[in-house]
Amino acid sequence: MSDFKRLHVKALVEANWEAPDWQPLEKTKEGEWLLERHSMTERLKACCRTLTVEVLGLHDVEKGVLSDSERDLLGDQACLVREVVLSGDDVPWLCARTLVPMSTLTEQEQDIAELGAVPLGQRVFNQANARRDAIEVAHLMFDGQVLLARRSRLWVNDKPMLVSELFLPHAPIYQEEG
């Protein structure tokens, strides 16, 4: 899994994130996934019998490691980085990298650092005031195939996190409606 992590997580870090062209994108199946404002966890769960989370990494980064755009969205502070793969019925569907500012990991949200195999969306969207904004998209090339990715800021109790998600080749976003 180290090659997987090296390639996919690195791609999320280096992606060229852009604001989506909302109007045409909203009318496509891919757009419904990329522009999802609620829980991606729940959306993925609806497409399989079992959704599992494999934690690839959990570590702290100093604020100087963050890109300018990450600092613009989160503030200029150290973060916890959580890297995971979500699989539907044992098929990898989504590689995600979450930046959680240390100031977010206080009070009720301190448990976010200890989620383990619990999906972040399951934890965040259980809060009535959870919301998503600042959605950006990217197209990443892997083995001659363009894969879709998105980055968005999640808020829980007015505390931010930045989630980058790469939709892997067998994810439901690419499947024909049936």
Give start-end ranges of low-pLDDT stretches: none
Q: What's the overall average pLDDT, rounded?
A: 93
CATH class: Alpha Beta
Q: Indicate the overall shape.
A: globular
CATH topology group: Chorismate lyase
Euclidean distance between termini CA atoms: 31 Å
**Mind telling me which CATH architecture this is?**
3-Layer(aba) Sandwich
Q: How would you sum up this structure in a few lines?
A:
The protein is an alpha+beta fold and 178 residues long. Helices cover 24% and strands 37% of the residues.
Map the helices and strands.
Blueprint: H1 2-14, H2 22-26, H3 29-34, H4 40-45, E1 51-61, H5 68-74, E2 79-88, E3 91-101, H6 120-124, E4 131-142, E5 145-156, E6 159-167
Antiparallel strand pairs: 1-2, 2-3, 3-6, 4-5, 5-6
Keywords:
single chain, 178 residues, alpha+beta, Chorismate lyase, 6 helices, 24% helix, 37% strand
Structural summary, described in words:
This protein has 178 residues and is an alpha+beta fold. It has a single domain (2-174), classed as Chorismate lyase-like (Chorismate lyase, 3-Layer(aba) Sandwich). It has six helices and six strands; from the N terminus they run ααααβαββαβββ. The chain has helices at residues 2-14, 22-26, 29-34, 40-45, 68-74, 120-124; strands at residues 51-61, 79-88, 91-101, 131-142, 145-156, 159-167. Strands 1-2-3-6-5-4 form a six-stranded antiparallel beta sheet. The longest helix has 13 residues, at 2-14. The mean pLDDT is 93. One of its GO terms (cellular component) is cytosol. Pathway: Cofactor biosynthesis; ubiquinone biosynthesis. Removes the pyruvyl group from chorismate, with concomitant aromatization of the ring, to provide 4-hydroxybenzoate (4HB) for the ubiquinone pathway. Substrate binds at residues 40, 82, 120, 165. Belongs to the UbiC family.
